[in-house]
Design a protein that fits this description.
The chain is built from 5 helices and no strands. By secondary structure, the chain is mainly alpha-helical.
């Protein structure tokens, strides 16, 4: 997340091995730090990755990739909830003093 915030990230993790170059390009464009260079929602919807997703000749996502993505989202959400709970606890301790 720190690398994303400063605009320097990569897709080096093995999780990205089965992800298409077009999908990586789409994510890369959406994570552009300079908002003036970042595509609008309308422009993003015109990206080739979305166009290919409508093509019936593209294979469905494998169950292994889907499960991995869901696990990553669950872990991310759990960390966010823990962070929120930690901040709430700290805030309550500061307010009680």
């Amino acid at each position: 997340m720190k690398k994303v915030k400063i605009g320097k990230f990569s897709f080096a993790d093995p999780t990205w091995n089965n992800i298409s170059d077009n999908a990586k390009d789409f994510i890369n464009q959406l994570l552009t730090k300079d908002q003036d260079k970042r595509p609008s929602a309308a422009q993003a919807l015109k990206h080739i990755w979305f166009q290919q997703a409508n093509d019936s000749s593209i294979n469905a996502v494998s169950s292994e990739v889907a499960i991995s993505a869901l696990n990553n989202l669950s872990n991310f959400n759990a960390k966010s909830k823990l962070k929120q709970a930690t901040y709430a606890f700290i805030a309550s301790q500061l307010l009680s003093k």
